[in-house]
């Protein structure tokens, strides 16, 4: 059962980061809700979101690079880089930087506030998306 829950959490982390490229906020919030219901800690979710946004920024910066070289420099398989490039194309550089800034704000509030971590994550995900 633990293995199944672990697989479900992994899948849903990827569902959440994939939902960043969707124009609607509903898939982002649904994925977040599912992860939290499975007991995934908010700081871990935040870390995965920030990692994804940083990877999208790095892929966009290397857009003109030969795909195998870009994959090697990022330390990722070419298929993953291809998928990241498809997702990164949905975002402007400014949007990705703004998203990273939002995630830093959430991190600050999670560490310094007595507020509800779920609400901070929802707030960020409502503001995030392609653009």
Structure description:
By secondary structure, the protein is mainly α. It has a single domain (2-127), classed as Zinc Finger, Delta Prime, domain 3 (Up-down Bundle). It has seven helices and no strands. It has helices at residues 2-19, 26-37, 42-61, 67-74, 78-88, 93-112, 117-127. Helix 2 (26-37) runs antiparallel to helix 7 (117-127), helix 3 (42-61) runs antiparallel to helix 6 (93-112) and helix 6 packs antiparallel against helix 7 (117-127).
Cα-based radius of gyration, to the nearest Å: 15 Å
- CATH hierarchy class name: Mainly Alpha
Task: Tally the beta strands.
Answer: 0
What do the pLDDT scores average to? 87
Largest sheet composition: none
Structural class: mainly alpha
**Count of alpha/pi helices:** 7
Please state the overall shape, judged from the principal axes of the Cα atoms. elongated
Order of helices and strands: HHHHHHH
Low-pLDDT parts are 1-5
Question: Which CATH architecture is right?
Answer: Up-down Bundle
For this structure, the CATH topology is Zinc Finger, Delta Prime, domain 3
Strand content bin: under 5%
What is the total number of structural domains? Answer: 1
Helix content: over 70%
* Intertermini distance: 39 Å
């Amino acid at each position: 059962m633990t293995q199944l829950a672990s697989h479900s959490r992994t899948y849903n982390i990827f569902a959440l980061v994939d939902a960043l490229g969707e124009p609607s906020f509903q898939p982002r919030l649904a994925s977040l809700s599912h992860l939290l219901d499975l007991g995934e800690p908010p700081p871990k979710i935040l870390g995965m979101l920030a990692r994804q946004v940083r990877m999208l920024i790095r892929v966009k910066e290397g857009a003109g690079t030969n795909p195998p070289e870009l994959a090697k420099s990022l330390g990722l398989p070419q298929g993953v880089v291809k998928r990241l490039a498809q997702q990164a194309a949905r975002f402007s550089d400014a949007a990705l930087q703004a998203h990273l800034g939002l995630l830093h704000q959430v991190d600050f509030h999670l560490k310094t506030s007595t507020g509800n971590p779920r609400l901070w994550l929802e707030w960020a995900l409502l503001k995030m998306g392609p653009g």
